[in-house]
User: Which sequence fits this backbone?
């Protein structure tokens, strides 16, 4: 990264050296930034995390669908239980009648 | 960092050199040693105006180096350069930060979905508990239904026996009637 060419070369002005130095420093800073980003492997990890999330999404939607169906079935069971409750109240009379018949 | 210090020192020496050289030039302007002037002019092109004239003094022809015109506003150019550098670095970092933002949004949406599923599950659990209690309260009635079913089957057996007996009676009666 550090350039040690500070001595003026033959045919090169100080101004040219300066502009070269500034350019090389800028390039070094950008290269450093890219190396830091590459070394952190954040791109790979985040990409893998996003892919895993997309794979899980199908399972999550299926689970939600199943839960909604279960809630509907539970509601139907409640309706059926209320109908059974209404009808079993007649069974007492029916039993009394049968007992008389079987005597 | 040492290299940066050296570079800063070089840049400082370059910026200080024109002031020192200008004073030296003013002092040497009155003198006849114009052979030295071209070298000084060559080193400080930003401050000394362009001198391409040739002087001849005492039979010696001298010429000065043609220099580039000085930059109009170096400070503005430097500020522009640093701004653009900042934009470039910002762009480099924006990619990763956008990835993080995307993952954060996906996580938030997933957590919302799980919260909805949690509410649905709580409702289902509560309803099923009520249903279990109600079915437990129906158990005596279900036992009565079982007893009714047993009684009906025994009644059916009795009806079959009665039917068979009545058929036997009918056959004997017909036999006696024929005699």
Assistant:
């Amino acid at each position: 990264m550090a350039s040690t060419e500070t001595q003026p070369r033959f045919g090169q002005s100080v101004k040219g050296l300066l502009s070269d130095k500034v350019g090389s420093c800028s390039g070094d800073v950008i290269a450093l930034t890219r190396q830091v980003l590459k070394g952190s492997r954040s791109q790979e990890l985040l990409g893998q995390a996003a892919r895993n999330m997309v794979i899980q999404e199908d399972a999550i939607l299926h689970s939600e669908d199943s839960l909604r169906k279960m809630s509907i079935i539970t509601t139907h069971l409640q309706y059926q239980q209320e109908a059974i409750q209404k009808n079993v109240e007649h069974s007492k009379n029916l039993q009394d009648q049968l007992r008389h018949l079987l005597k | 960092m040492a290299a940066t210090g050296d570079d800063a020192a070089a840049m400082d020496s370059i910026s200080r050199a024109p002031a020192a050289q200008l004073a030296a030039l003013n002092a040497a302007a009155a003198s006849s040693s114009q052979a030295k002037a071209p070298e000084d002019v060559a080193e400080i092109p930003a401050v000394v105006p362009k001198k391409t004239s040739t002087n001849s003094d005492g039979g010696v022809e001298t010429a000065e180096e043609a220099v580039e015109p000085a930059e109009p506003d170096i400070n503005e150019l430097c500020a522009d350069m640093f701004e653009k550098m900042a934009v470039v670095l910002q762009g480099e970092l924006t990619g990763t930060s956008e990835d993080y933002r995307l993952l954060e949004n996906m996580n938030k949406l997933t957590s919302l979905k799980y919260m909805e599923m949690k509410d649905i599950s709580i409702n289902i659990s509560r309803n099923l508990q009520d249903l279990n209690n109600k079915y437990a309260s129906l158990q005596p009635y279900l036992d009565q239904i079982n007893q009714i079913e047993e009684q009906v089957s025994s009644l059916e057996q009795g009806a079959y026996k009665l039917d068979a007996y009545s058929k036997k009676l009918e056959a004997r009666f017909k036999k006696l009637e024929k005699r």
